[in-house]
Every structure is written in structure tokens, then in C-alpha cells.
Amino acid sequence: MTTTLDLTTDLLLGDSFVAGTGGTFTSLNPATGATLAEVSAASAGDVDRAVDAATSALHGDWAAVPPSGKAALIHRLADLVERDASVLADLDSLDMGVPNGLAQMLFVPNLVATLRYYAGWADKINGEQIGNDGYFGRPTHAYTLRQPVGVIAAIVPWNAPLMILGWKLAPALACGNTVIIKPAEDASLSILHLARLVVEAGFPAGVVQVLPGQGSVTGAALVRHRGVHKVSFTGSTEVGREIQKVTADTFKRTTLELGGKSAQIVCEDADLDLVFPSIGMGVFANSGQTCAAGSRVFVHRSLYDAVLDGLGGAAGAQVLGDPFAPETTLGPLVSAKQRDRVLGYVQKGSAEGAKLVAGGKAFGDAGFFVEPTVFAGTNEMTIAREEIFGPVATVIPFASDEEALALANDTDYGLAGTIYTQDLARAHTMSAGLQAGAIGVNGWSPLMPQLPWGGLKSSGVGRECGYDGILANTESKTVTVVL
Ligand code: NAD
User: Fold this and answer.
1) Does the Cβ of 158 fall within 6 Å of ligand 1?
2) How confident is the prediction for the chain on average, in pLDDT?
3) pLDDT score recorded for residue 130
4) For residue 235, how far is its CA from the centre of ligand 1 (angstroms)?
5) CA 60 to ligand 1 center in whole angstroms
6) pLDDT tens across 232-262, in order?
């Protein structure tokens, strides 16, 4: 860990760091329960000021920066993130408990890759010329413009703060929008450090602002503000549902990346050497605090006992502890509330008759740890129906591909899914049949800036990343010139 961390705890409002007028909130280290910092909270008045600054920048200094200039600034931010990679990774490990190796290997590099990918798009955002039938007998020249949506509120959860922020921030900037970021109360510190890098990179005032605070105050004020044109939200299905109702009032563009209950399907011809490491990662990575967690593991009956044993073994082999210890594979859950919620689901699983194969208890004397837990169960049980957001898997048998798909699709969610098979035809057929926004075959949930990401059903609305990210951050305008 970096020896001394100089924490940023104030709002980035305009181009200045200022104390919020909404009081403060406490940020805890989930590995120990100790207080890390008191973070400034933005009030509704601070949100008004940020929207004013974002609006001025949108039509003024940011609009004046040519596309290649925007690309250069986004690349400059990526350079600074690379320079401060260990500080940023350390802040996420301290603040939300991710093993430091995972933060170094995924969270920060993914942010850099996303910034660079969209920096490349900034001078390639084009409309098109459209042939047409003419206007009352006169020819026309018709074309579309792709223009920024406007002021965008990026509301971020705590489970992978920097990575998820990158999926919102980078395309929004490349397309010429201005962005007001609302980090999660449980993990604001790395994003507040990023705010410093935004200033150092030289973005004009108001292009990127960071307003930590309570969801019900700061987040809600952004969502209802008439000067915000789009809300890009990642978080729980429950909050996403409320946000969509509020944004309907002002017809704001709304992208919702919500919860999941994703399936990992182990077909009868799966290569088990490949399945075991991947399936464990799919459900236990980041202590199960992953929207795409493959927490329902469907296994062909012929492999059921072997996979149940293997996954139980993978759970037992996890090393829980200090996120900064190199041997640690699982850190704590983010808060005591989240730990207790997960343990509540474990109790419910046992009460409904699921067989506990591994784990099932809190771990250690300090911090908010839960043992990786494996149940043998059915798709009807609460543990297989509701998002737990902890390291808990339910392993469920099936007899045919059709039954596997029917079970996997029998859920309110539709974020991701994984299919393990060596048969190409089966891989493509089942990928087409699985109702989810992103499917991995023989690999769990690849997350890359080039690949669109988002969910069906209660897992959300819209897509981030890839070219979809450009479409989601621009409005199309049709111009028809009668010749
Ligand atoms: P959450 O919904 O509690 O909070 C998410 C963010 O919304 C936080 O910044 C919070 O302060 C803010 N917020 C809360 N109430 C608000 C309101 N009324 N108005 C505006 N903003 C408000 O979610 P969480 O507990 O931080 O994150 C976990 C959830 O996020 C899980 O359900 C997980 O599946 C989901 N998630 C989804 C994806 C995805 O890509 N689909 C990725 C990561 C996490």
C-alpha cells in the first residue's frame, strides 16, 4: 500500500474543491470497521450550482474544444490515472475492501482502457447523409447530426467505483457532454482522487464535477433537476425503478444498469478443468459484490456431484483477510449492513431446505467478512430468486439443454450468463436462447470497453461501452435542406 494517503474529501464544484453544504458522512474501512474519513456531502443547493457550471461549460468552454482537443484531454486523464494507479487501487481497497490485486489488475486498468478507447472515438462521431423521396417534387439534401445529450448525471455504486464510472464518463466526454458524478456513500474516495486528476489534466471548469453525498439527497436532487438531460445510473433495481419514475417527469434520457441473478450453465460436455476456476471466479470474485455474479449454477445431472464438490472445494480454498495481503483472494463485504443482509439470505436458504455444502458464516473478529458459501438447491428458493450481492452460490441440476434454458430464464433478471460447453452449435444455440444482455462462453463475463454491457428485464435499460456508448451519449438530429 502507498505509505501515506492524502485523501480528498471535498466536492469538486466548477474547478474548485469546496466543502459541501449538506454536512458530512463517514467512510469506514470495511476490513476493520475503523473510520477512514469524514466526506463532505453535497446539498440540493450544491447540485444547483454544479448544474449551472455544467451548463455554462456545455455551451461555452467545452463546446469550443475541438474533437481532437477532447481526445487529447481524455488521453491526458488516462495518463494521470496510470501515474496514480497504485493510489487509486489502494483507495478502493481501503474504502470498499476489494483485494488490492484485483483493483490493480482490473478496476484501474479497465478505467484506463475505457478512457483511451473513447478518446479514440472523440473525432469519429459522425452523422450520415440520407437519400430520400424529395419535398413536393424538389430534391433535398438531408443528413443527421450527432450532438451531445447535454448535462449528464453519472450515479455510481460502490462495488467497482472506478471501472463503472469509466463506462459513463469516457463516452460522455468523447461525445461533448458535461458530467456531474455522484459516487456511492460507501466508496467515494477513489473517485474524489480522480477529481484531482481531472483538474490536473486541464479540463475546463464544469466539464467534470464530483458531488459525493447521500443518494436520497444528492442523487435525488440530480435526478429531478430540470437542467440535467440524462441520468446514467448503476445500482440496485429498487433505486433504478424509483429513478425511472422521476426522470419520466422531465423525459430525461435514462440508462439503468441494475442488479442480476445470472446463470452459469455447465453442459454435459463441459471441460471441467476450465469450469472450476471460472465458475468460482464467477460467483466469488469481489466477494460476490458483482452485478454479473453467476450465483445460479446450473449443472447437467451427469456432472452435478463433481461440480458441487469442485465448487465447495473452490469456496474452501479462498483466503479471506486483509485486502492488502498478497495471499488474500476475498476481502470483506462493503458494510455491516451488507454482511447482515447476506447472512440473512444464508439463513433463509437453510430454512427453505437448501443443503449447505460450504461456508455459511461470518468470518473473523473484525470487519465485515462472510465465508464463500455454496448451497445445493432449487430455482424456486429465495436464494436463487433474489440478488444477494455476496459470495453465495446455489447449484441446481438439469437434464437437458432445453431445461437448462427454461430454468435460467425463469428469473426477473437478465444481466449476464455463462455457458460451459465444447460443442460450437450448442454454444451458439444456447447463447441465442439465454435471456440476458451479455453471454460468455467458456469464460465468465468479459468486461472490455469495446463490448456493449447492460441488462434485460429488471437488470436495466440501455447499454454502455462499445459503439452503444456513443449512441447513448448523443442525440440524433435530422436536417433537411430543400434544394
Ligand atoms: P444503490 O442503488 O443503493 O446505490 C447506487 C447509487 O445510487 C449510489 O451512489 C447511491 O447513493 C445512489 N442513490 C441511492 N438512492 C438514490 C435516489 N433515490 N436517487 C438517486 N440516487 C440514489 O446500489 P449499491 O448498493 O451502491 O450497488 C449495488 C447494486 O448495484 C446491486 O444491485 C448491483 O447488482 C448493482 N450493479 C449493477 C451493475 C450493472 O452493470 N448492471 C454494476 C454494478 C452494480
Assistant:
1) yes
2) 97
3) 98
4) 2
5) 32
6) 999 999 999 999 999 999 999 999 999 999 9
Say what the pLDDT of residue 277 is: 87
Q: Which residue's CA is minimally distant from atom 13 of ligand 1?
A: 215
Range 470-483 average pLDDT: 98
Residues 185, 257, 387, 464: which is the catalytic one? 257
**Residue 82 falls in the annotated catalytic set:** no
Reduced 3-state DSSP string for the chain: CCCCCCCCCCEEECCEEECCCCCEEEEECCCCCCEEEEEECCCHHHHHHHHHHHHHHHHCHHHHCCHHHHHHHHHHHHHHHHHCHHHHHHHHHHHHCCCHHHHHHHHHHHHHHHHHHHHHHCCCCCCCECCCCCECCECEEEEEEEEECCEEEEECCCCCHHHHHHHHHHHHHHCCCEEEEECECCECHHHHHHHHHHHHHCCCCCCEEECCCCHHHHHHHHHHCCCCCEEEEECCHHHHHHHHHHHHHHCCEEEEECCCCCEEEECCCCCHHHHHHHHHHHHHHHHHCCCCCCCEEEEEHHHHHHHHHHHHHHHHHCCECCCCCCCCCECCCCCHHHHHHHHHHHHHHHHCCCEEEECCCEECCCCCEECCEEEECCCCCHHHHCCCCCCEEEEEEECCHHHHHHHHHCCCEECEEEEECCCHHHHHHHHHHCCCCEEEECCCCCCCCCCCECCEECCEECCECHHHHHHHCEEEEEEEEEC
Q: Which of 239, 244, 245 for a ligand 1 pocket mutation test, highest count of atoms within 8 Å of Cβ?
A: 239
Out of 159, 218, 457, mutate this one to test ligand 1's pocket (max ligand atoms within 8 Å of CB): namely 159
Whether 291 is catalytic: yes
